[in-house]
Amino acid sequence: MSEEGLEPSQNVSVFDTQFYESVFSVIPERHLNVLLPEVNTVTSDCYFNFTNMGNSGEEGKLHRKLSRIGSRSQREPPRPPPQVERPPPVAPPRQPEPAPKPPEGAAKPICPAPKVSPKPSDASLKPSIPPKPQIQVFSSTEHGNAILKGLYHFRCDETLCDVTLMPGDSTETFPVHRVIMASASDYFKAMFTGGMKEQELTEIKLHGVSSTGLKNIIEFIYTSQLSLNLSTLQDTLEAASFLQVLPVLNFCNQLLSSEVTIENCTEVERIANDLLLEDVQTHIHNFVCQNFSALVQSGHFLQLSEASIAHALSSDSLKGFSEMELYRTARAWLAHKSSERRPAAYTLMRHIRFPLMSPAELLQISQEDQVGEGSIEEKEGKEPFMRSDTACVNLLLEASNYQMLPFLQPLLQTERTRIRSDTTHLLALGGVMRQQLVVSRELRLYDEEAGGIWRALQPMEMPRYQHGVALLGGFLYIVGGQSTYDTKGKTAVDSAYRYDPRFDRWLQVASLNEKRTFFHLSALKGKLYAAGGRNATGEIDTVECYNLSKNEWTLVAPMSEPHYGHAGTVHGGLMYVSGGITRDAFQKELCCYNPDTDMWSRRADMMELRGLHCMCTQEDRLYVIGGNHFRGTNDYDDVLSCEYYTPAVDQWTVVAPMPRGQSDVGVAVFKGRIYVVGGYSWNSRCMVDIVQCYDPEKDEWERVFNVLEPLGGIRACTMTVHRPRACGFLGGKLVKLLLEEENLAEIRLLDLCIRPELIQSLEECQGETKLSTFEGDIRDSDLLKKVCKGASIIFHTASLIDVTGAKSYSELHGINVKGTKLLLEACIQENVASFIYTSSIEVAGPNHRGDPVINGNEDTVYNSYLKFPYSQTKKEAEQLCLNAQDEILQNGGRLATCVLRPMYIYGEGCRFTLGHMRDGIQNGDVLLRTSRREAVVNPVYVGNATLAHLQAARALRDPEKRAVVGGNFYYISDDTPPVSYSDFNHAVLLPLGFSIQERLLLPFSILYLLCFLMEVVQLVLRPFLRFAPPLNRQLLIMLNTPFTFSYQKAHRDLGYTPRYNWAEARKRTTDWLASVLPGERQKINMK
């Protein structure tokens, strides 16, 4: 172990969600096959018993004869004749009556009377009937094998063969036995027993069977064994299908399915289609869906059949593609063999979900499909697939109409508006932390498939608790509630929003006529109903109905009296509302609202008074769970009892009580079980973070998991949503470097969602180091403690990056600042000695004036006002790390921190460089110039950036260097020549044939004004649409300001020296871009 290396016993954790998007993680199952020996056990009862059966010769014969004679002479009594009636059952012997006791004072006998046994009955003297001997069955597995072996030798010797088979592709002959072939093949059975002329022939020509296939089939019939490889599989499969030898056909199906790869799947599909192998066809369709991305990138998708690509495009499980990308893929497939595939245009395009595209994308499709004389499309052979097919044109009109009616979309749902996801998740939103009096605006998804973690979705527009939630048409509506903590409902709000799980965004809809909180919201027959509640005026009895087509709320029949803290659910087209509080008294009544008659009616009362409880529907039962009521006169108590209502009989039934009380909760039915989320426990006098689950089939409660924070007034539901995709760029390469160069006991990798291909690449260089992966949210403090426990150093590279202003400050602050703070706290609690944080050059500038810095360093004074959220949050997080230097750990040690500020990082896997290449492809391989030539920067290659992290870790492990490095930040660059961002992109893409514009698109001042206008539009549209302008003022200034820094301090303190020079770094980056270029061209149909 070198002096500057890391100790073998230490654990290293790496946090990487650089872009905070997620992909699907696939963990292969391990199968354990246990072979058990066959054991044949025969048991029988024999009437006769023969001994010495092994004797032979005369002595044996004499012994057996004497045994038989001896056995006859000992038969006492003789066997009764047949058909003799059985005697009646023998009664048990009668017990003698006890002798009377002598009177007192009588003389005792000199000796006792002898005991006399009772006389046996006549029945007991009769001989018993011996059991009849059972029939013994002998079975031999060797017999069948011996016969097959004998027949096989007969065939080889051409003995007793009565017919000769000849394949269709050769003159080779195969003498066989008719009866054997007919017994194993339905084809030969029909031929030899159905009166066909071949029944009399001695030579039969099989035109549909090859020599190899026929030989293998005959070999199997006579030996029950078959040896196959990929070169003989097709011939054998065709022969088995033709001759109907089902065991061989099934085995070939399984073998063919198991050998499917990206390279041969189209050929396997052809074989399956030709032979009508339904199982193989199904497997191919599933394989194509699971590997569609690889098929598109490699170009093999162009050879897929119409059925396979249509099945893939229709699949809800097809992930990782935008609808525009799928449209490009379908169009490329159609254009590959245009004349042949043109009729399939609508078959494919009807599976593209055009309504989920943006208006700009729909307009782009319409313009691309117009082919004019001499146009690029005509030269490249493009065909107007959409415009020439009326059905395809209608698809675009349908999408346009759908987008023009945003408030009606829940009522216009079709298969083309459905989200591309096949997984339903539990969601929790809002709530209040009573200790801090802070109301949450978080929307979180519980990802059971990823090991039970909470993922963050787009937060609500404003904090809320005690709000109403309802699902309608695949959308989530949140209505009313409170945005600040207040127990009397005085801060109730009337605003309403709709969440779109397809795009992870919110849309504001019409507000309530009356502010309300502590109320119930239901979705019923295409409308929303808000019933009761309270506000600043007190308890209310009004009920409002939301009409989607008019985007307005109207009053309907009110409740019988004011209620708040009640719960409700929907069943059979009716809304049921139970319990609650009226005039400070808890209720047990159940009311029912019929929207058709606009009338309320009473039903059977609950068995328990309760309020602030929850209610849900599971099949035909309406469950009422938890809540609280008065204990005595003026104190509250948890209601643990639970009951369900059966509408058909108007009756309540008690079920198992809750283990722990929960009031003011979220409730959702998920996979047939009822989940009760968060809330408040009056018995414990605190908010709770538990999630309890009730199983109706078992009538049992179970505590299953926790929410991230104790929250009261939280709400829950279940939805089908897109899981966020993660794309670890720096962190994955850092883990790989640690595996390759350090002898570590364990490396732990935490990411929002870890890509399976990343795990596979890391396992290839794993060695003796244990690699543990964790998927989760960096704001999950319990998970952070689990990851940090026992670790000696943390690399924190996680960050939510946003340079276009698409994310709000609260989103960026929650990940970049709050996540960093929680991670530092976990390090202190779990005694992690070293902490390295990956910051960004944007924390330094450039400032809003565009003041240049050339060859700056850590001591350079630069006045920078950070206006945009990403820069602000990265600066705040960096300061947290520097301030944590020398924090005292739980074990008395001290924490050492170090911050690295890498310049713009490029290299294999960089999504920014890839994005510029895509833009260049769409512009005819010409890169747009967005930065002036004199605005030079000095990017850093990703391999050098990861090396700097490793050397910083080594420095923190060295006691002498630790005192110097701890609490400092370092710029990280390399010898990449200083050029502008645009010229750098041109440098790595030049070998691939890309050119670049000589001048800026427009003068800088005009571009700056346009950026300002686009930011105004973004601000105006934010409540309705997430619009991210392609360029903003901060990005424009950053691209056009000279800004370079030296790595000399990192070289002095950390020992950092770049490992890869510019030529190597450029070649590695260009080679990677060249590998993905064909796939990218195909995705955009060579535009």
UniProtKB/TrEMBL annotation:
Listed GO biological process terms: protein ubiquitination; regulation of cytokinesis; steroid biosynthetic process
PROSITE patterns recorded: BTB
Pfam families (alphabetical): 3Beta_HSD, BACK, BTB, Kelch_1, Kelch_KLHDC2_KLHL20_DRC7
Primary localization class, coarse: endoplasmic reticulum
Lineage: superkingdom: Eukaryota
A cellular component term, taken from the record's GO annotations: Cul3-RING ubiquitin ligase complex
Region spans: Disordered: 52-130
UniProt topology in membrane: Single-pass membrane protein
Compartments where located: Endoplasmic reticulum membrane; Mitochondrion membrane
Keywords: Endoplasmic reticulum, Kelch repeat, Membrane, Mitochondrion, Oxidoreductase, Repeat, Transmembrane, Transmembrane helix
Signal sequence region: none
Biased composition (Pro residues): 79-103
Domain named BTB: residues: 161-230
InterPro entries (UniProt xref): 3Beta_OHSteriod_DH/Estase, BACK, BTB/POZ_dom, Kelch-typ_b-propeller, Kelch_1, NAD(P)-bd_dom_sf, SKP1/BTB/POZ_sf
GO molecular function, one term: cullin family protein binding
Family: Belongs to the 3-beta-HSD family.
Protein name (database record): BTB domain-containing protein
